[in-house]
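TICKET: design request
STATUS: open
ATTACHED STRUCTURE:
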């Protein structure tokens, strides 16, 4: 008897390696071994108390029915205020609220990319970027975020080389996962010129905005703040990172008005709306006191400095301080070479034998060979313990 065959499009999907690492780490813990969890991009701070209280009040008031697919008006207005604070001339007709930021990434591709169009994505980069391009029928071309003597930088030669007459969009991620590279205003002005000259869309993943270490209030520049760019830029953002609300699954997009109706139609076809009581919590987070965001960013700055300094004392490692987000993308190529292992196998061995859970750089693209990503969004004592264990690994591997 024959069986139905799954749709081929499922083969186009990649997944985040952090989930597989977390599952493997739980198995190691169940065997009785200590594990320091540095695999997930999840701050250890609680959600802002006023956000939690607002969501509870809304749920107790039965604010749990269908609501406007684009989001409750108050939250959309609060996102407008947030955008204008960043220099983005948004109006309510530019804002769509979604059930986490990931759907907005998918909607952005579905709304702008036709079959055969080429989309430039960063490598290394967030693992689902190539998935969503392929799922929309597009073709992936890559440009590099490269490690230089002055830290992580966009490699303009690779971006220029990737452009072609079929290029439809450039996907940006700043601050960048996994390297922490953060675009400057000059970077974005150059990208804006390219987009205007070639009539391209910009899809700008800004989920780590608010966690940039070298800008006032931690707010990194946005492509949509460049004059004339709001009409060709889709900002993907949400509440998971800077407000430490990962499990709430609440996101938003700031989109060209030309795309607003299509984006809302995609929401209706997918989730109908984001849960209104969750949106009430998001409203309180974005419009209320920002003390929790500032405290998180300053704590992350201290953890970054402490962790990177510790990493760079260990033979066989090189780590450039990230300018934003909360990841150390560590060059371990010299140490890996002593083991004669590939990067994936090396990261697995670090977990099994030394109890440090990190993500192989190859989870973020082939240019991640030789690197391991560690999240420093956890307690300082755990980071110190990770340094101890990594030093033990370096000694054991003969570095």
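STATUS: resolved
RESOLUTION: sequence designed for all positions
ATTACHED SEQUENCE:
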């Amino acid at each position: 008897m024959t069986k139905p065959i799954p749709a081929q499009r499922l083969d186009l999907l990649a997944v985040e390696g952090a989930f597989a690492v977390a599952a493997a780490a739980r198995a190691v813990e169940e065997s009785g071994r200590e594990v320091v969890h540095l695999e997930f991009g999840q701050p250890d701070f609680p959600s802002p108390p006023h956000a939690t209280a607002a969501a509870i009040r809304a749920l107790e008031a039965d604010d749990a029915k269908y609501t406007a697919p684009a989001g409750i008006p108050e939250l959309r207005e609060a996102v407008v205020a947030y955008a204008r604070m960043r220099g983005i001339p948004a109006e309510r007709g530019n804002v769509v609220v979604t059930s986490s930021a990931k759907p907005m990434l998918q909607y952005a591709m579905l709304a702008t990319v036709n079959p055969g169009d080429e989309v430039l994505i960063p490598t290394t980069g967030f693992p689902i970027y190539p998935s969503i391009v392929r799922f929309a029928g597009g073709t992936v071309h890559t440009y590099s975020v490269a490690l230089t003597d002055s830290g992580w930088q966009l490699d303009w030669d690779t971006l220029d080389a990737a452009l072609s007459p079929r290029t439809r969009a450039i996907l940006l991620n700043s601050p960048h996962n996994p390297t922490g590279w953060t675009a400057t205003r000059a970077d974005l002005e150059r990208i804006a010129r390219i987009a205007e000259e070639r009539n391209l869309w910009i899809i700008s993943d800004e989920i780590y905005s608010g966690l940039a270490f070298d800008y006032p209030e931690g707010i990194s520049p946005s492509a949509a703040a460049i004059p004339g760019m709001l009409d060709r830029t889709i900002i993907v953002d949400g509440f998971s990172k800077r407000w430490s609300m990962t499990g709430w699954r609440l996101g938003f997009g700031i989109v060209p008005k030309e795309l607003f109706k299509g984006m809302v139609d995609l929401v209706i076809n997918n989730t109908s709306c984001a849960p209104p009581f969750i949106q009430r919590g998001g409203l309180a987070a974005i419009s209320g006191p920002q003390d929790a965001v500032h405290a998180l960013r300053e704590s992350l700055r201290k953890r970054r400095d402490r962790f990177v300094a510790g990493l760079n004392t260990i033979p066989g490692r090189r780590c450039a301080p990230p300018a934003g987000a909360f990841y150390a993308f560590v060059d371990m190529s010299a140490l890996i070479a002593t083991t004669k292992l590939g990067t994936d196998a090396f990261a697995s061995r670090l977990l099994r034998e030394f109890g440090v859970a990190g993500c192989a750089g190859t989870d973020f693209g082939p240019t991640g060979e030789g690197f391991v990503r560690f999240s420093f969004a956890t307690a300082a004592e755990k980071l110190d313990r990770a340094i101890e264990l990594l030093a033990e690994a370096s000694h054991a591997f003969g570095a």
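CLOSING REMARK: The CA atoms of residues 310 and 387 lie 6 Å apart. Residues 291-311 form the longest helix (21 residues).
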